[in-house]
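pipeline: protein-struct stage 2 | run 1193 | Putative membrane protein (TIGR02234 family)
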Amino acid sequence: MIGHLAHFFQRRNTILVLQAGAVLLLISSVLTWVSVGGGQSAVSLSGAEMTTLVRTIGVIGVIGGVLITMARRWVRGALAAVLLGGGLIALAAAVVAMLDPAQAAAPALSRLGADGDVHTLGVGLWAGLAGSVVLISGALAVLLFSPGWDDESEGGA
């Protein structure tokens, strides 16, 4: 089983997984996470309005994926650890919004000066949840399998 995972998570596939997770997070930051109210007074809150960290983590994920392709040894591990932490933070934000949308939407609604009773979950929340899980998976794959990548036998930092 581990051998199959190690074979799949070679450099190219691992970077693609990281980039897919980061892009999903970026996309989720512009899509609706929670809709509040109904009718003409409805307010749709995007991922960026709910938590600004989602967009930031998406950008860091894209940049981190590129840097991991160029980095070697411990630098690659450090970058993967940062991406793992970011993925966990994004996952926590999505889970909190999923479990209690009213509580998660309260700070954004107070900034917008809006209120409402009906809270429905949008597709952006599910994209953020999926993106964070994929980003976490890619970061774990870098930590676990990157020592076996081709460049490790060469000298370098």
